[in-house]
C-alpha cells in the first residue's frame, strides 16, 4: 500500500495570481497579515499571551529563525514570520486520533503541505502497522516498546540513523547524542548538514572557528554590511530593523543576490509611525545581481580591484600590517587575483565591471566590515570556495577579530547552532568524545557516522533500516524527493517526533510511529516542577526559553522526556539516570557544563544568557599555524550551456523551512500558489514561453532524470540562464549526489535543468 503515491506535494488546483512587487517590506501589511493569521489559528487570548512572551527574557524563544534578541527588547519583540511560526505551533486545531481515523495515509498524501500543517497539533502517539491504511493511537509504552524491539534487532547500531531538526533544545540534543552514542553509533544527521555545513567546514579551516564572529552590537559600528545569498526580509525579518539603524547612520549595505529582494531595498518599521505611514527607509545602496554560481568570480573581481587600487596608492588601502602579522597565503592569493582576466570575471559573475569596482570602493572605504550570508552561498557544489572567498575579502581589510567587523553566517533555525554545539554531528572532535566518555563512563564510537546525504543513500541501499527523527520534516527538507522517499520506504521502521502533521509522516517505513511533543510556546512541567530549556542563536548567545501555554494535550511529552523514555526502553535505566534528567533539566546542564567547552556555571548563567567563547572574534586563529589563511580558488566552470538553465530553490514569504503557512509570496507579487518558476524574459522568449504557461522542469545526473511537472512560468528580474522555484516543490530536481565539495551539503542553489512546455 505504502508506495502507491508520489512523495511530492500535489499540484495546486488553480494557477497563482501574479502581480507587482511592493516597493517596500513590512509596514502595515505585516501587522494586518500577522494578526489575521494569529487570530485565525490561536484566537485573541492565546494571541496576546504568546506574542507578549515571544523573545522576552522570562518568555520563550521564537521557534523560527535564529536571529538574536537585542538587549533592549521591545514589548513586541517579534516579526511577521515569527507570528506565523508561533501561530502554527500554538494553533487550536488538533490532529487527534479521530482525525487519523477519518483520513487514510493515501488521502493525506493527496493534500497540500498547507492543508497538512493546518490539520493542527498532534495529540497522541500514533502507529502505522505493516500494510495498514490508517494510523492508530497507541500508548507511549507500546510505542517505545516497538522502537526498542526494532533497534535491538538490528545487526549493528550503524543500521539506524537519528536525525535532528534545528528546533531541538540544547538539553534534548545533549541527551539525544548521548543516547545514540551509548547505543553505539555516530549516525547523527542533522538539518545543519543542509544549511550551514559548508560554512562550518570552510571557516574552521581558515580562521579556526566554524561559527560567526560577530554579535548584534557590531552592527552598530560597521561601515559596511554585505548581505550575500540571503533574503532577510523573509528569512530573518527582525534583521531589517538592525539594517535600518545601520543605514540611518550612513553604513553602506551591499546586497549580493541573483534576485532583487524587496526586503533589502526599503523597510517600513511596523513599530514606528514613519514605518506605518511613511515611505520607509532605503536599505541596500548597492545591489549586485550576481548570476547563480557567480559568487567566486564576483569576489575575485572585487579583491582584484582592491589590490590594483592598493598598489596604485602605494600599499596604503589594505590591512597590510594585519596581513603580515596574522595571516598566511596572501602572496599566492595576490598572484592568482592579478592573473585572473577581467573578461572571465565579468562573464562568469554576470556582474558589470563598473558594479564590481563600486563594490570594491565600498570595501576599501570600510574601516569595519561585516559579511552576512545564508543558503544562497552555502548550497552550491563550490560552496566552500564561496565562503572562503568572503573570508579572503574580510582578511584583506583585517575585518576579523575587532569590533564592528567580521563573518556572520545567519542560521535559519532557532537552535541549529546549539544542537551542533551539544554534539549533534556525525563526526565530533576526538576531544569531545573523550570528555563524553569520561563523564558517562563509556567508550563512544569513533567511526564517522552518516550525515543527511549519506543517511539517504544508506537507507536506499539497505544499510540503514531504522530512521528516527527528532523534529523536522526530513522528506520535504532533503533533496531528490522521490529517491529519498524510496529510501525511507525501505526502512523497517520510521519514527517522527513532531508537533504538527507533515509529509514525512506519510512517506514511511514498513511500520511508522509518530510521537507528539511539546512546542516551544508550551509550559514544560516535569516531576511537578516547571522546567526551562536553552538555545543558542546565530551569534553564539545561549539563553533560556520557557513556555507560557498549557500543552495542546495531556498525552504530549517534552523532547527531553521522549529521549529519556526511549533510552530507558532501549538501553535500560542502569546506564544513565534518565528519569533523573527528565525530572530536573538543571541536572542535564550540570553534565553539559562538564563535557562542552564554554558552559562553565551553566545553570547560574542560563537565565540571564551568555555568549560562548569565539577565538577568532577574540583575535586568535586556532588553525594549524595559529594564523588565518587566505585561500586560492579557481572560478568554477560554467555548468549550464546549450539551452540548460541553472535552478535555485528558494522560500516564499509564507513559509519557514518546509512549513507552509500560506500560498502567497507577497514580496514577489505571487498570490494563491506555490508551483511557480521565476524566469528571465529573454529565456522565456528563447523557449517561446509566456507568463502563465505551464512547464516541466527536468534535471539529469549520473543516476538518471528527474522531472518536476506543471510549474507556472512567472516573468521575473533574474539573471539570464537562471531560474528559481520554491522548495520543497523543486527538491525533486536536486540529485542526491549533487553536493558541495568537502562539506557534502546538498547543492540546491545551482542545479542544471531544462525547461519545456508541459505535456498535458
Ligand atoms: S526574526 Fe526570526 S527569531 Fe525573530 S521573531 Fe522573526 S522569525 Fe522569530
Report the top-level CATH class of the domain at 197-409. Answer: Alpha Beta
Relative strand content = 15-25%
Briefly note the structural class of the backbone: alpha/beta
At the fourth level of CATH, the homologous superfamily of the domain at 197-409 is: Dimethylsulfoxide Reductase, domain 2
Mean pLDDT: 97
Helical residue percent band: 25-40%
The number of strands is 33
Named CATH topology of the domain at 197-409? Dimethylsulfoxide Reductase, domain 2
Gyration radius, to the nearest Å?
25 Å
- Let me know the largest β-sheet: 6 strands, mixed
CATH architecture of the domain at 197-409: 3-Layer(aba) Sandwich
Helical segment count: 28
Which cofactors or ions or other ligands sit in this model? iron/sulfur cluster
Shape: globular
Distance between the termini: 27 Å
In the predicted model, the low-confidence regions spanning at least 5 consecutive residues are: none
Your description of this structure?
35% of the residues lie in helices and 17% in strands. The chain has 760 residues and is of the alpha/beta class. Among the domains are: 2-21 and 640-757, Beta Barrel (Barwin-like endoglucanases), CATH 2.40.40; 197-409, 3-Layer(aba) Sandwich (Dimethylsulfoxide Reductase, domain 2). The strands form ten sheets. A six-stranded mixed beta sheet has the order 6-5-18-17-16-7, with helices on both faces. Strand 21 and strand 22 (541-545) form a beta hairpin. Helix 7 packs parallel to helix 24, helix 12 (295-312) runs antiparallel to helix 15 and helix 12 packs parallel to helix 18 (383-396). The longest helix is centred in the N-terminal third of the chain and has 25 residues, at 27-51. The chain is globular, with a radius of gyration of 25 Å. The mean pLDDT is 97. It binds iron/sulfur cluster. Residues 62, 64-65, 67, 78-79, 81-82, 236-238 line the site of iron/sulfur cluster (SF4).
Amino acid at each position: 500500500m505504502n508506495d502507491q503515491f508520489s512523495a511530492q506535494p500535489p499540484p495546486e488546483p488553480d494557477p497563482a495570481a501574479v502581480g507587482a512587487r511592493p516597493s517596500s517590506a513590512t509596514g502595515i501589511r505585516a501587522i494586518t497579515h500577522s494578526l489575521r493569521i494569529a487570530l485565525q489559528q490561536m484566537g485573541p487570548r492565546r494571541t496576546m499571551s504568546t506574542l507578549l512572551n515571544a523573545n522576552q527574557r522570562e518568555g520563550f524563544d521564537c521557534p523560527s529563525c535564529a536571529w538574536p534578541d537585542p538587549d533592549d527588547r521591545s514589548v513586541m519583540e517579534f516579526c511577521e514570520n515569527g507570528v506565523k511560526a508561533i501561530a502554527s505551533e500554538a494553533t487550536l486545531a488538533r490532529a487527534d486520533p479521530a482525525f487519523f481515523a477519518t483520513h487514510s495515509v493515501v488521502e493525506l498524501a493527496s493534500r497540500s503541505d498547507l492543508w497538512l500543517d493546518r490539520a493542527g497539533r498532534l495529540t497522541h502517539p500514533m502507529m502505522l502497522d505493516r500494510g495498514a491504511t490508517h494510523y492508530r493511537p497507541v500508548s507511549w509504552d507500546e510505542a517505545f516498546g516497538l522502537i526498542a524491539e526494532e533497534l535491538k534487532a538490528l545487526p549493528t547500531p550503524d543500521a539506524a540513523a537519528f536525525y535532528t531538526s534545528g528546533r531541538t533544545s540544547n538539553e534534548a540534543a545533549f541527551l539525544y547524542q548521548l543516547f545514540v552514542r551509548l547505543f553505539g553509533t555516530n549516525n547523527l544527521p542533522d538539518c545543519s548538514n543542509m544549511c550551514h555545513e559548508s560554512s562550518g567546514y570552510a571557516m574552521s579551516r581558515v580562521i579556526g572557528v566554524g561559527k560567526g564572529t560577530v554579535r548584534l552590537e557590531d552592527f552598530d559600528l560597521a561601515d559596511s554590511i554585505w548581505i550575500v545569498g540571503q533574503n532577510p526580509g523573509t528569512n530573518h525579518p527582525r534583521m531589517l530593523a538592525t539594517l535600518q539603524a545601520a543605514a540611518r547612520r550612513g553604513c553602506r549595505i551591499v546586497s549580493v543576490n541573483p534576485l532583487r529582494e524587496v526586503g533589502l531595498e526599503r523597510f517600513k518599521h511596523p513599530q514606528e509611525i514613519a514605518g506605518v505611514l511613511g515611505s520607509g527607509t532605503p536599505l541596500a545602496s548597492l545591489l549586485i545581481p550576481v548570476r547563480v554560481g557567480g559568487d567566486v568570480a564576483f569576489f575575485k573581481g572585487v579583491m582584484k580591484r582592491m589590490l590594483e587600487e592598493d598598489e596604485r596608492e602605494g600599499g596604503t588601502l589594505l590591512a597590510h600590517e594585519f596581513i603580515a602579522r596574522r595571516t598566511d597565503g596572501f602572496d599566492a592569493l595576490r598572484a592568482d587575483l592579478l592573473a585572473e582576466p577581467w573578461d572571465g570575471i565579468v562573464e562568469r559573475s554576470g556582474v558589470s565591471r563598473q558594479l564590481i569596482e563600486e563594490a570594491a570602493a565600498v570595501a576599501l572605504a570600510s574601516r569595519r566590515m561585516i559579511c552576512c550570508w545564508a543558503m544562497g552561498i552555502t548550497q552550491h557544489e563550490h560552496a566552500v570556495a564561496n565562503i572562503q572567498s568572503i573570508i579572503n575579502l574580510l582578511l584583506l581589510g583585517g575585518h576579523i577579530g575587532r569590533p564592528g567587523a567580521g563573518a556572520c553566517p545567519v542560521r535559519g533555525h532557532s537552535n541549529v547552532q546549539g544542537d551542533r554545539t551539544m554534539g549533534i554531528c556525525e563526526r565530533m572532535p576526538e576531544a569531545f568524545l573523550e570528555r563524553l566518555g569520561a563523564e558517562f563512563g563509556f567508550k563512544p564510537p569513533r567511526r564517522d557516522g552518516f550525515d543527511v546525504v549519506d543517511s539517504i543513500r544508506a537507507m536506499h541501499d539497505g544499510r540503514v533500516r531504522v530512521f528516527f527523527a527528532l523534529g523536522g520534516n526530513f522528506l520535504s527538507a532533503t533533496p531528490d524527493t522521490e529517491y529519498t522517499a524510496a529510501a525511507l520506504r525501505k526502512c523497517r521502521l520510521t519514527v517522527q517526533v513532531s508537533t504538527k502533521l507533515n509529509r514525512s509522516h506519510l512517506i514511511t517505513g514498513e511500520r511508522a510511529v509518530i510521537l507528539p511533543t511539546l512546542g516551544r510556546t508550551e509550559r514544560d512541567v516535569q516531576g511537578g516542577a516547571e522546567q526551562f530549556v536553552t538555545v543558542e542563536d546565530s551569534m553564539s548567545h545561549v539563553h533560556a526559553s520557557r513556555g507560557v501555554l498549557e500543552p495542546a494535550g495531556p498525552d504530549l511529552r517534552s523532547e527531553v522526556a521522549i529521549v529519556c523514555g526511549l533510552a530507558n526502553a532501549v538501553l535500560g535505566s542502569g546506564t544513565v539516570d534518565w528519569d533523573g534528567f527528565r525530572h530536573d533539566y538543571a541536572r542535564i546542564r550540570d553534565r553539559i557544563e562538564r563535557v562542552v567547552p564554554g558552559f562553565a556555571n551553566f545553570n547560574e548563567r542560563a537565565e540571564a544568557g551568555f555568549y560562548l567563547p569565539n577565538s577568532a572574534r577574540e583575535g586568535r586563529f586556532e588553525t594549524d599555524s595559529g594564523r588565518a589563511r587566505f585561500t586560492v580558488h579557481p572560478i568554477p566552470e560554467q555548468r549550464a550551456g546549450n539551452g540548460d538553465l541553472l535552478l535555485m530553490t528558494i522560500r516564499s514569504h509564507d513559509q519557514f523551512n518546509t512549513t507552509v503557512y500560506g500560498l502567497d509570496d507577497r514580496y514577489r507579487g505571487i498570490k494563491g500558489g506555490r508551483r511557480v518558476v521565476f524566469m528571465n524574459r529573454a529565456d522565456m522568449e528563447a523557449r517561446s514561453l509566456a507568463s502563465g504557461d505551464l512547464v516541466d522542469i527536468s534535471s539529469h545526473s549520473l543516476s538518471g532524470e528527474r522531472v518536476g511537472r506543471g510549474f507556472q512560468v512567472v516573468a521575473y528580474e533574474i539573471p539570464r540562464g537562471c531560474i528559481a522555484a520554491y522548495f520543497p516543490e523543486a527538491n525533486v530536481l536536486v540529485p542526491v549526489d549533487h553536493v558541495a565539495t568537502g562539506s557534502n551539503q546538498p547543492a540546491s542553489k545551482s542545479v542544471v535543468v531544462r525547461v519545456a512546455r508541459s505535456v498535458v
